[in-house]
Each structure stands twice: as C-alpha cells, then as structure tokens.
C-alpha cells in the first residue's frame, strides 16, 4: 500500500511571541517540524507535502528537498490547508497521513498501528485519539455501539453530556487518498469562524456510508500540539524523558536523569555510564563501557568503546577506544584521538590527529597537527599554527618527546624519536633521533637580586 503524507505547517503561531517561526522552535535540539518529517521518513512515505504559508522560506530552507511544498496564501482552516495539496496528490493511490507540524511527540509505533488498523478495517478514515482526564479545549470523539467513530464535536459545540467525554481528537489522520479530496471539495465554511474544517470530512464520509475508525493511543502526550512557550517546555520534558527511558532500557546507566540531556539522534552502547550534568547533542555516538561526565557537553562526536570524558567539551571530535579526556579539556572540530590517548586538564585540540598511546596531559594547545604514536607533549607546549593569514601544519612523528613550555612554530616537523627540551622555540625541522635545544643560555649575576630590588624601590619612591 502506498503511503503519502501532508504536514500542516502554515500557521503563524502568534502565541509563541517569537521572531522565530513556530514550527522551527526546537524540541530536544531539533525543530518540531523536523521531528514530524523524521517520523514520516521512518515509515517510508512515498510523497511528503508540507503546507506552508507564514514562514514559508524558513521552512523550505530547513526541510530542503526532503519534502514537496504547497502554499496556503490565506489561513482559512485546516480543510483549506489540506486542499492545497490536491494538485500534487489527488491522483495518487493508497492512503494519506495528515499530521500537524507542531506535534513532535507522535511516535513511529503509533503511526504503524494506525496504518495496520486502517488496512484491516477497510476504513475511509482513521483518527488518532487519546483519553484525557481534563479534555477541555479538545474536540470530543463520539462512537456508536460497534465502536466506530460517528463524529468529532468541537469544544464550543459540546452539550453537557458531550463535555464529559474523555476521548479527544489528537489531530493526526489517515485517509483513503481519493476519498479525502473528494470529500474536501464538499466542505463549506458555514460556521462562526468562516473556515473550512478538516474535521467536517468525517461527517461527509459517514453520510456517504464510509467506515471511520479511531485508534486511541496509550500515550496521551502524543496529542499535544505546541502553541506557546509553556507547551514548548512541556513537550521538551516529555520527549527528554522518553529518550532517557529508551537508553536506560537498552542498558545505559544514567545516574541522575533529571540532570542529563540527550538529543534524539544520539546513540549509546550498553554498560556506558552517564554521570550528572551530561549533555549529548546532534549525531553523537557513544560506544560501550564508556564513562561520560560529570558536566560534559558532547556535540556531533564519537566516543569509542571504553572511552572516558570528564568535565569537558567536545564538538565534531573522535575519541578512540580506552582514551581519556579531561577534566576541563576542549576538543574542537577535527580532533581525532587514537587508542589509549590521554588528553588532560586545560588542553585544547583542534583539527589534529593524535596517535595511539600519545599523551597531552595538561595546559597545552595542539592545533592543525599530525601527531604520531607514543608521543609525550609536556605541560604548556603549543603548536603555533597561525601566522595571521594562514594555518600551517605541525608534524610530530612516533615516539617523539616534546618538553614543557615548548613552542612549535608551524610549518615544522619533529622526527621519529626526537627530543625537544623544555622551554625551546622550534622554527626548523628536528630530524629523527635528534635532540633540539632552542633557548637563551642562562646567565647568573651574583648578589644582583638585592641590587635590583633597591633600584625598583627607589624608582617607585620617586613616582610617589
């Protein structure tokens, strides 16, 4: 069965009170409409049409060619919005999902179950519903003795008995594609709002003798649409709790879920431990048996099996197996650590590779460098990679020793097994096995310390 989809993404979202278009407000690091499109891609919908209006350029810039677009020049109701997709979809076969771009909490398993029920029942429409203890503000679902949906009654139209109904319309639908557009042509705007309602399609289908069913989700949060900053915060918490629960079920220890933030595309292996304050973003991949945190932020990075990251920040970096980062290290884009590497406190690595068993233990900067295996880089050593116009490469081959407070002025190469003594400023290549010394010869002046103090004291007295 072919599956098509329509994403309703044309609303202005005035209640967000924001310069950012509503559908682009992030939930767990990803714009809400992005979550919806991800969902539709997971169930392999053939055609995905986004109905855009306000903020159309921003929506298109974000979604790109992942969707087709239909423009709703005037917001005349949900039925009118769906009708804009008719030129693109009216001749397609199968079913069409209609879903709002501000409902990021709808789950893949829910849509799959709706599709299964829709196929088995031969329904013209399947409505996602939910039961709520406080259904105020939502359209109520009415059913007949066989459990088939007979209608959707909006809150303002409910009588006293209908207001007691707890099953509500969650705003996601499956339709027989041909019947959807046939019914939409008959929807009118004869109502108080002078709008064309998608829910009127249900009544038209019932009048035609078509079957309409409802699938009541066990998770009422899937019905939540985000209309303001309060709803945004609530959705953020609900999604974050889902993500954390998924990882814990899959074998990840999260010591304090209330202080742990994980975005939806993050992958984590079994027996990894996340300590309080851990923040994992983007396409980050954490292997098995890792220890992350406390208070580490990792963005679009890979930590291989057995890695440790303590109180550090990583962005677009790779940490090899059993390597140790931190505390208080910063791995910037392009940092690539091999196996059993140590990057210690207050070390910054940028656009550099460090070979297996290499150590940069403290207070150093390595940028635009290629560092081999078994290299020791001492405290305060830096690669001087920028001349004010261009970045240059530093190469340090296997087994070299870089002493404390060494400056390597790029472009420069330190050969295999070479030794650079502390305090040196290296401007020329050091060949394999050589010892490099590049510092002023020390001069001691006996008794001069007190003489210098006296001169300084006298000079300061004259200024006073």
TrEMBL record:
UDP-N-acetyl-alpha-D-glucosamine binds at residues 8-11, 22, 72, 77-78, 139, 154, 169, 227, 332, 350, 365, 376. Binds 1 Mg(2+) ion per subunit. It is found in: Cytoplasm. It catalyses: alpha-D-glucosamine 1-phosphate + acetyl-CoA = N-acetyl-alpha-D-glucosamine 1-phosphate + CoA + H(+); N-acetyl-alpha-D-glucosamine 1-phosphate + UTP + H(+) = UDP-N-acetyl-alpha-D-glucosamine + diphosphate. Acetyl-CoA binds at residues 385-386, 404, 422, 439. Its cofactor is Mg(2+). Keywords: Acyltransferase, Cell shape, Cell wall biogenesis/degradation, Cytoplasm, Magnesium, Metal-binding, Multifunctional enzyme, Nucleotidyltransferase, Peptidoglycan synthesis, Repeat, Transferase. Residues 230-250 are annotated as: Linker. Gene3D superfamilies: Hexapeptide repeat proteins (2.160.10.10), Spore Coat Polysaccharide Biosynthesis Protein SpsA, Chain A (3.90.550.10). It is an enzyme of class 2 (transferase). The active site is at residue 362. Mg(2+) binds at residues 102, 227. Residues 1-229 are annotated as: Pyrophosphorylase. InterPro entries: Bifunctional_GlmU (IPR005882), GlmU-like (IPR050065), GlmU_C_LbH (IPR038009), Hexapep (IPR001451), NTP_transferase_dom (IPR005835), Nucleotide-diphossugar_trans (IPR029044), Trimer_LpxA-like_sf (IPR011004). In the C-terminal section; belongs to the transferase hexapeptide repeat family. In the N-terminal section; belongs to the N-acetylglucosamine-1-phosphate uridyltransferase family. Catalyzes the last two sequential reactions in the de novo biosynthetic pathway for UDP-N-acetylglucosamine (UDP-GlcNAc). The C-terminal domain catalyzes the transfer of acetyl group from acetyl coenzyme A to glucosamine-1-phosphate (GlcN-1-P) to produce N-acetylglucosamine-1-phosphate (GlcNAc-1-P), which is converted into UDP-GlcNAc by the transfer of uridine 5-monophosphate (from uridine 5-triphosphate), a reaction catalyzed by the N-terminal domain. Homotrimer. This is Bifunctional protein GlmU.
């Amino acid at each position: 069965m072919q599956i098509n989809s329509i994403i309703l993404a044309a609303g202005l979202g005035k209640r967000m009170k924001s310069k950012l278009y509503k559908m682009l407000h992030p939930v767990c690091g990803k714009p809400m409409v992005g979550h919806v499109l991800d969902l539709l891609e997971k169930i392999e919908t053939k055609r995905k049409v986004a109905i855009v209006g306000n903020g159309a350029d921003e929506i298109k810039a974000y979604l790109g060619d992942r969707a087709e677009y239909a423009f709703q020049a005037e917001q005349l109701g949900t039925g009118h919005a769906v009708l804009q997709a008719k030129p693109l979809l009216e001749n397609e076969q199968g079913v069409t999902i209609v879903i709002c771009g501000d409902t990021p909490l709808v789950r893949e398993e829910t849509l799959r179950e709706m599709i299964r029920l829709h196929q088995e029942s031969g329904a013209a429409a399947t409505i996602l519903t939910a039961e709520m203890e406080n259904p105020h503000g939502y359209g109520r679902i009415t059913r007949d003795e066989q459990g088939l949906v007979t209608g959707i009654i909006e809150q303002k139209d409910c009588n006293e008995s209908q207001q007691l109904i707890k099953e509500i319309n969650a705003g996601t639908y499956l339709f027989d594609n041909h019947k959807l557009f046939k019914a939409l042509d008959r929807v009118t705007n004869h109502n108080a709002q002078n709008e064309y309602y998608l829910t009127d399609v249900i009544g038209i289908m019932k009048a035609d003798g078509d079957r309409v069913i409802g699938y009541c989700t066990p998770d009422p949060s899937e019905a939540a649409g985000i209309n303001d900053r309060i709803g945004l915060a609530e959705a953020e918490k609900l999604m974050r709790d889902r993500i954390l629960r998924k990882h814990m079920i899959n074998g990840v220890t999260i010591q304090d879920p209330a202080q742990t933030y994980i975005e939806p595309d993050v992958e984590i292996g079994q027996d990894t431990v996340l300590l309080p304050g851990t923040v994992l973003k983007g396409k980050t991949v954490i292997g098995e048996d890792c220890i992350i945190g406390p208070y580490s932020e990792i963005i679009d990075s890979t930590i291989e099996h057995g890695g440790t990251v303590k109180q550090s920040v990583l962005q677009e970096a790779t940490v090899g197996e059993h390597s140790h980062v931190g505390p208080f290290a910063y791995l910037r884009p392009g940092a690539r650590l091999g196996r059993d590497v140590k990057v210690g406190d207050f070390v910054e690595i940028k656009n550099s590779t460090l070979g297996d068993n290499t150590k940069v233990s403290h207070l150093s900067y390595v940028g635009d460098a290629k560092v081999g295996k078994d290299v020791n880089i001492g405290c305060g050593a830096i690669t001087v990679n920028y001349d004010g116009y261009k970045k240059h490469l530093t190469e340090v081959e296997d087994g070299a020793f870089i002493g404390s407070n060494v400056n390597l002025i790029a472009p420069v190469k330190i050969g295999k097994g070479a030794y650079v003594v502390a305090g040196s400023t290296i401007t020329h290549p050091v060949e394999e096995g050589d010892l490099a010394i590049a510092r002023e010869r020390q001069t001691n002046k006996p008794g001069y310390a007190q003489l210098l103090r006296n001169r300084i004291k006298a000079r300061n007295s004259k200024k006073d």
